[in-house]
Design brief:
Helix content is 36%, strand content 18%. It is of the alpha/beta class. Helix 4 links the parallel strand 1 and strand 2 (74-79). The longest helix has 13 residues, at 27-39.
Length: 205
């Protein structure tokens, strides 16, 4: 079974390394926001209005808060943790479970999900990716932690509360199996002039 809401409420977000104790202004959140803002600088909505963007597993909304400072996107997000939702740093943080097949969001220009899918069991990942794809009519950005990436040694992953420990090929097979197409040129833009983390993908839905 995927990592529980109790785990995130009682341990993950309230630990000394996460949540407000780590500070929403932590560099990792800012770097992720810079990567997304840079890669999708030309993001446009079909209606001509500001693009709608959804964060899956947003925690307190720290990445969204940084994006508000640098983009004109209309942002909202959801997280499994009641603690994170009750202690937000962004105004549009909602309670939601990625494993809930009935959860519905209107299609967005961009849906991003960073450092979340590893907390699911391996046999839950494909359905989760399919749900994420259904919420986007343009792009999906994923931040994963394959075990063969240099910054993600298995020893770290084992101590992190994660449930899925798989290599790059396994993750890419799940991405394409969910009907997403990896956009390699857009993925390269995530790292163009921005020091980011391994395992990031831009996909077209």
């Amino acid at each position: 079974m995927s990592q529980s809401a109790e785990y995130f409420n009682e341990k993950f977000w309230t630990s000394t390394e996460k949540g407000v104790h780590r500070a929403p202004g932590d560099a990792r959140y800012a770097v992720t926001a810079r990567q997304l803002a840079h890669a999708f600088a030309d993001l446009r909505s079909r209606s001509g209005s500001n693009p709608w963007v959804l964060e899956v597993g947003c925690g307190q909304g720290a990445v969204m808060e940084h994006l508000d400072e640098s983009t004109n996107w209309m942002l909202d997000g959801f997280d499994l943790s009641e603690w994170a939702v009750k202690n937000p740093v962004h105004h549009a943080v909602f309670l939601g479970d990625l494993n809930n097949a009935r959860m519905w969001w209107s299609p967005r220009e961009l849906v991003y999900c960073i450092g979340v899918l590893e907390f699911l069991e391996p046999d839950e990942v494909l359905a989760a990716l399919q749900r994420i794809r259904s919420w986007s009519h343009q792009y999906v950005a994923l931040g994963l932690q394959p075990t063969d990436q240099r910054y993600m040694p298995r020893s770290y992953l084992l101590d992190s509360g994660r449930r899925t420990f798989e290599n790059t090929r396994w993750w890419e097979d799940k991405i394409t199996g969910a009907g997403l197409v990896i956009d390699h040129s857009m993925t390269e833009k995530l790292y163009d002039g921005v020091i980011g983390w391994d395992g990031m993908y831009v996909c077209r839905s």
